[in-house]
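Reply to dn_fold:

You asked what the input looked like. This is it:
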Amino acid sequence: MSHLRLLCALTFCGLALGVHDVAPIMAAEPADPWPGLVQDIFNNRAMNDGADVLAIEMPYRAEDAAIVPVTLRSKLAPDDTRRVKTITLVIDQNPAPMAAKFELGSDAKVSEISTRVRVNNYTNVHAVAELSDGQLYMVKTFVKASGGCSAPAAKNLEAGNHLGQMKYRQFVRDDQGPASGPREAQIMIGHPNNSGLQMDQITHLYIPAFFIDQLHIWQDNSPVLSMEGGISISEDPNIRFTYVSNGAKTFRAEAKDTSGHVFAKEWKVDNSGS
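and this is what came back:
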């Protein structure tokens, strides 16, 4: 009986000890970074529900965390007298959460912007539009992806051969008029856009951050779109957008990177509507 009592006592102590030890190990829910980001990025300004103002589209589960597509679309009604002045894209759990801030030309009526971003952890992604009424309007979505900021740039070895090369594509839309009306275009820039978190596979040293941090786009001399970029924009940045043509004969873009390089190019615009 004494051996049985000892065994029971040890078993009870072990169970008690197990419960005691497990409790502190149970992971608490990670703190929501969004309130701090509102303070840091938006100076703690009030956020309004943006469901009727802006839409954000991203895959719920990304196929490749280093090139996650994102589309930002204005939902303002045609008779709404307000206009979207800026859209800020925030990837909450990324090392540098502010992925990009887009400033929309006052006359270009940009209604949609698409690009590709890196996502480092499962995260909420917020888009915040500032309207001409001075108010901020926020929407969000959730993305399951991880490791995007540290994933090696696929074209890093050939970066010197295509660094700063810029391409322009114009897309035909069913609702596009012969000289004006909605148009869709894309600007692509050859650049590794190193995040600073990627490791050289040969030296095992971290590659310094090196990315496009400014992009400006005009039709003739009228601003269409500008972007302040960060480490979350994927390599070989491309921006696809919908705007209203003013009948311009040329389209031009200028980009700058964190090493001071300036890349600029101009293209002729096809106004035939075909």
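Residues 1-23 have pLDDT under 50 and may be disordered.
Hope that clears it up.
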